[in-house]
Design a protein that fits this description.
Shape: extended
Length: 339
């Protein structure tokens, strides 16, 4: 029975085998990209469906919350009350800290204030849980016997740091993503507000109209404007609605818009002119950020160019020569020994 000759190798790796794996990974990446491009979902489809279901339930007189859901809400309230009592007994709950966490929750798009207690309780419990687990794994059962004392200490410290900073980092990521989404749609929203103001709509009607028009493209901004329109309708002081908008969005541009709206309400200045100036400033700012990112692109591309592209070029250019040299040495070795 004849054995098939081995293929060319490079650094001890079969070139044909490695190339087949890379080609398979590239094909999977192409299929995933095609699937992602084909299955684009409307971000407002689920929200519109939920609103339609809510409207139908209200029309027919059916309560939206079943007994099981109501019981789960009661359990959540009892859980947060128990956490608050535990934090009060330990004297680790400060009102200023709770207010900061609640504002971060609003900025992340989470409308429930009681979850601030959960975040503070998690910051207290997670370091103990993760640190205890890491100490048991590293020191108790000695799961990593090859690790030195310094590496074990660093693993224990990393578990403590992740437990303490984990909830805060998670909230920070949610806030950053939501703020970026709102920043992208704010100039368009201001342009629509200018058009609505010049058309003679009131402020609450203008906010409601902009929320409907931009809710499909920018769901986060649409939610904030819709909530502001609702607050403008029922709050006693309209200024409070604008201050709540600035409180919920971690963006200086939104604070500038709310300040302008408050001044127009107080002094009667033309709203359309002020909003048009703000919109032009925000568009110039967005263009400057794009130019800054474009200027930083060559420096950022240097690292992936060195790490990923140049080694591949070296393999493609020098690979055939290295394979030929290896085959020549393999063929000449027995002949030299026989002579």
């Amino acid at each position: 029975m004849m054995n098939t000759p081995p293929g060319p190798t490079l650094l001890g790796i079969d070139v044909l085998w490695a190339g087949s794996i890379l080609a398979g990974l590239a094909a999977m990446a192409v299929l995933f990209a095609i699937y992602t491009a084909v299955t684009i979902r409307d971000p407002m489809q689920k929200r519109v469906k939920a609103l339609n279901e809510r409207r139908d339930e209200l029309k027919t007189g059916i309560l939206t919350q079943s007994a099981r859901k109501r019981a789960s809400l009661v359990r959540k309230t009892e859980t947060t009350d128990w956490m608050k009592e535990a934090l009060d007994k330990l004297n680790v709950l400060q009102q200023s800290q709770l207010e900061v966490i609640q504002q971060k929750l609003f900025q992340a798009g989470i409308r429930r204030k009681e979850l601030g207690i959960v975040v503070i309780f998690a910051r207290m419990v997670l370091p103990i849980a993760l640190g205890g687990t890491a100490a048991f794994v590293v020191y108790g059962i000695n799961y990593f016997p090859d690790w030195g004392s310094f590496k074990k200490l660093m693993a224990f410290a990393a578990a403590l740091g992740i437990g303490y900073k984990g909830p805060e980092i998670y909230l920070g990521n949610l806030i950053t993503k939501r703020t970026d989404a709102i920043r992208k749609g704010l100039p368009d929203a201001l342009d629509l507000l200018v058009i609505c103001a010049e058309a003679g709509l009131t402020v609450d009607a203008a906010f409601n109209r902009v929320a409907r028009e931009l809710g499909r493209a920018y769901p986060e901004l649409g939610d904030e404007f819709a909530l502001t329109a609702i607050e403008l309708s029922f709050l006693g002081e309209r200024r409070q609605a604008f201050e709540n908008l600035a409180y919920r969005v971690n963006l200086e541009a939104v604070k500038g818009v709310t300040t302008t709206m408050v001044q127009t309400e107080r002094y009667g200045t033309p709203l359309a002119t002020a909003l048009r100036v703000l919109s032009a400033e925000f568009r110039n700012e967005r263009m400057m950020r794009a130019e800054e990112k474009a200027a930083r692109l060559p420096a950022i591309m240097t690292v992936p160019l060195i790490l990923f592209i140049l080694p591949v070029l070296f393999v493609v250019i020098l690979g055939p020569a290295a394979c030929s040299i290896a085959d020549a040495f393999a063929d000449g070795g027995p002949a030299k020994g026989g002579g």
